[in-house]
Specification:
Blueprint: E1 13-16, E2 28-34, H1 38-51, E3 56-62, H2 66-73, E4 82-85, H3 89-96, H4 104-108, H5 111-115, H6 119-124, E5 126-127, E6 130-131, E7 134-135, E8 140-147, H7 148-154, H8 162-174, E9 178-181, H9 188-202, H10 204-211, H11 221-235, H12 252-258, E10 262-268, H13 270-278, H14 280-285, E11 287-290, E12 305-308, E13 312-315, H15 321-333, H16 337-345, H17 355-358, H18 365-376, E14 381-383, H19 385-388, H20 391-405, H21 411-419
Parallel strand pairs: 2-3, 2-4, 9-10, 12-14
Antiparallel strand pairs: 1-3, 4-13, 5-6, 7-13, 8-10, 8-11, 8-12
Helix pairs in contact: 9-10, 9-11, 9-20, 11-21, 20-21
Amino acid sequence: MTAAFALTAPVLAACGSEGPGGGGGNALEVWTYQDGSSTIQEEFVEQFNETSDIDINLTQVPGENYQDRMRTAMGSSNAPDIFFNWGGGSISDFVAEDMLVDLTDTLAEDEEFQGAFLPTILDAGTVDGRYYGIPMRGVQTVTLFYNQRIFDEAGVQPPETLDDLFSLVETFQEQDITPAALAGADAWTELMWIEYLLDRQGGHEIFERIRNGDSSAWGEPAALEAIETAVELVDAGAFGNDFRSVSYTTDGASTFFAQGEAAMHLMGNWEFSNQLTNQPEFAENELAWTTFPVIEGGAGDPSAVVGNPTNYWSVNSQVEGERLDAAIEFLKVHATEEYAQALIDNGDIPATTNAESLIASSPVPEYAQDQWDMISGASSFTLSWDQALPAGQAAPLIDNIEQLFSGQLSPQDFIEAAQAL
């Protein structure tokens, strides 16, 4: 799933400084996704260049074009030496072609380096049990946000079970309030509902099989039950009648939610930062949050989390010798307390084990603490399918989810199509 931050640069933007090495042909070319967090990468690249014999040239790629540009560049003479990615399926094709440096031994040989990261987050970026990525940004959970004022006025509590959720759908419909905002024009927002419903119904094992590309997992009874539940929510009016025309990337769903037109919003935790920036009064006075409800009788662990565990740096296998040594030193910067503090100051939750000790300095400590508790207490934290699966499976799966929510596919048709991927 894609975080929808404001993206302003229409072309590649590069930055960097001339350090002791003087840059030149020996410099490392580093690509990152350009959004509100990329200023942190700028800052630490500049610091690295002040002391390194080999410079880093940082290129920021606008988010809307990032994946296509990165995939086109890899394997060409214009390929980056180090690049931002989502781990898992987003880099599995590169691993299969031996295009990435296997970092497993590097981590094993440096206990302090490996131990700096939360194991569940570090493991979420693996391919076939091997490490090809190092966490480099904040943790991105999918969280159920709700409007505290609306809930108080209705005399209800956030849902703890699926039955509670359906009851709330009825309650808010009676008050002419859309129960849950949904940006159906961006199908990845619908994916969040499918992921949590399947996780809570079938448990982590089925979810993980799908994440690893085993399409036969869709044949499990729990998968059909989860898909049927999603359709039941649509048919019950959980998302209103016009959700297919609402966009997230243009802030449509978030604004609808903030204006009190919807009671809940299932979204990545970047929603909090977006609301704090765009609707500060709502964020400070009415915005509340909770975990996704459990399904009574389901096999899922209620502490399990889905989302984007974090983003990762991976190293091109063409990087060798002293340039590889410099690349590894750059990766190790992201295990430092200084880097974690920079993420905290930006409103992010670092993927490092020391994050809890830094949370008090967060712009909103209560929210940061709750997010940390969710992350650190998670029995599993699974990368969202649109990033975990290879592109050949992810794109048609998203298309099928869009057709499911729009009524063009029945639950059984969806299952059959998913199994055929």
